[in-house]
From TrEMBL:
<dbReference type="GO" id="GO:0006012">
    <property type="term" value="P:galactose metabolic process"/>
</dbReference>
<keyword id="KW-0520">NAD</keyword>
<protein>
    <recommendedName>
        <fullName>UDP-glucose 4-epimerase</fullName>
        <ecNumber>5.1.3.2</ecNumber>
    </recommendedName>
</protein>
<comment type="similarity">
    <text>Belongs to the NAD(P)-dependent epimerase/dehydratase family.</text>
</comment>
<comment type="subunit">
    <text>Homodimer.</text>
</comment>
<keyword id="KW-0413">Isomerase</keyword>
<dbReference type="GO" id="GO:0005829">
    <property type="term" value="C:cytosol"/>
</dbReference>
<dbReference type="Pfam" id="PF16363">
    <property type="entry name" value="GDP_Man_Dehyd"/>
</dbReference>
<dbReference type="InterPro" id="IPR005886">
    <property type="entry name" value="UDP_G4E"/>
</dbReference>
<dbReference type="GO" id="GO:0003978">
    <property type="term" value="F:UDP-glucose 4-epimerase activity"/>
</dbReference>
<dbReference type="InterPro" id="IPR016040">
    <property type="entry name" value="NAD(P)-bd_dom"/>
</dbReference>
<comment type="pathway">
    <text>Carbohydrate metabolism; galactose metabolism.</text>
</comment>
<feature type="domain" description="NAD(P)-binding">
    <location>
        <begin position="5"/>
        <end position="325"/>
    </location>
</feature>
<dbReference type="InterPro" id="IPR036291">
    <property type="entry name" value="NAD(P)-bd_dom_sf"/>
</dbReference>
<keyword id="KW-0119">Carbohydrate metabolism</keyword>
């Protein structure tokens, strides 16, 4: 059995990835402090997997807790999702973000080095490209200083793990740059469960669809795009999860630094998303135009061809799948995991 430690495995992307790992015959161990997730997800993961998936409560910033995991288990590789991810909150709490994300990753990498576990797969983000000079973005597009502390932690962790790989060449460092993950597991049992009013488009739309929120505010309709609203590369979270399995298959024990964009390669505008969602629910979703949101880039979508060529991975689910599954999750779980 190949054992994969999944930090942040109780979270949105981590929980879906754990399921795909089990399906592909891997042996994941979830490690999470529930700072942005709920224990109820664990039983649902077990239900979907049809078996118990081990869980360890802990914080990546507490070295002794990580050491205990590595002492008690032979960990073949780590998929590192654990981190804080709210852009606006990171502006208000920069030190907390650097501590949790950068310092936490530093401690995790140190424990991995000390226990001779050299396979590291990191949840990076298209945010490392900043405002793109051109689209689609390839892995060779320049990485830029981020415009918020959250984004900068991703840039810093990328550099830190690359420097470690230079110093300890046995390391296999895989940086997966996600575009915009949306959707939920088709069972409707797991999905994204944001605290409070969602910051991101898709969870906001789903809450408008079920009447929890009155109306979507579209941030800006005067951008230089086909309809004036921003363009993003939305990717179904199950496709994204499968991208991690493909990365494990390809990169495990292959020393070096491996960087992949995980996106569909298709850019949709905010209005495209509203239309797709309206179609999914069979009625018009209420929206109004609001001022631009600070820090938004005009357009951002991937050239995913490297992942296709090297990992044999490509996103397969459509925009209709994304909207259907997001809505299904929200409808079945109006209060997320609190139901
Ligand atoms: P999430 O908040 O749902 O999951 C993160 C998980 O990590 C949570 O369960 C949280 O409790 C846990 N965690 C946080 N700090 C921890 C710590 N110190 N110790 C142990 N556990 C800790 O977020 P997500 O959307 O699943 O994102 C997962 C990763 O992917 C994050 O690193 C995020 O920055 C990155 N990412 C997310 C997106 C996105 O839009 N969702 C896009 C690009 C990259
Ligand atoms: C998408 C589009 C908004 C909400 C963020 C992070 C990024 C990454 C993914 C982790 C934009 C518009 C949104 C709303 C709107 N996370 N919008 N009304 O900003 O592309 O990416 O999440 O790495 O780092 O920045 O995603 O879903 O917030 O926004 O009009 O209520 O929807 O302006 O054009 P974004 P998003």
């Amino acid at each position: 059995m190949t054992t994969i430690l999944v930090t942040g495995g109780a979270g949105y992307i981590g929980s879906h990835t754990v399921i795909e790992l089990v399906k592909a015959g891997y042996d994941p161990i979830i490690f999470d402090n529930f700072s942005n997730s709920k224990p109820a997800v664990l039983a649902r993961i077990n239900k979907i997997c049809g078996r118990h998936v081990p869980f360890i409560a802990g914080d990546i910033r507490v070295r002794e807790q990580l050491e205990a995991v590595f002492k008690e288990n032979k960990i073949d590789g780590v998929i590192h999702f654990a981190g804080l991810k709210a852009v606006g909150e990171s502006v208000k709490k920069p030190l907390e973000y650097y501590d949790n994300n950068v310092n936490g990753s530093r401690i995790l990498l140190g424990v991995m080095r000390d226990f001779n576990c050299h396979n590291f797969i990191f949840s990076s983000s298209a945010t490392v490209y900043g405002e793109p000079d051109s689209v689609p973005l390839t892995e060779n597009s320049p990485v830029k200083r981020a415009n918020c502390p959250y984004g900068q932690t991703k840039v810093d962790i990328e550099y830190m793990s690359e420097e470690l790989q230079k110093a300890v060449p046995e390391f296999s460092v895989t940086l997966l740059r996600y575009f915009n993950p949306v959707g939920a597991h088709e069972s409707g049992l797991i999905g994204e469960d944001p605290r409070g009013i969602p910051n991101n488009l898709m969870p906001y739309l789903t809450q408008v669809a079920v009447g929890k929120l009155p109306c979507l505010n579209i941030f800006g309709n005067d951008y230089p795009t086909k309809d004036g609203t921003c363009i993003r590369d939305y990717i179904h979270v199950v496709d994204l999860a499968k991208g991690h399995v493909a990365a494990i298959k390809h990169c495990l024990n292959k020393s070096g630094v491996h960087i992949y964009n995980l996106g569909t390669g298709i850019g949709y505008s905010v209005l495209d998303m509203v239309k797709a969602f309206s179609k999914a629910i069979g009625r018009e979703l209420p929206y109004k135009f609001a001022p631009r949101r600070a820090g938004d880039v005009v357009q951002c979508y991937a050239d995913p061809s490297r992942a296709k060529e090297e990992l044999g991975w490509t996103a397969e689910l459509t925009l209709d799948d994304m909207t259907r599954d997001s809505y299904n999750w929200q409808k079945n779980n109006p209060n997320g995991y609190d139901d």
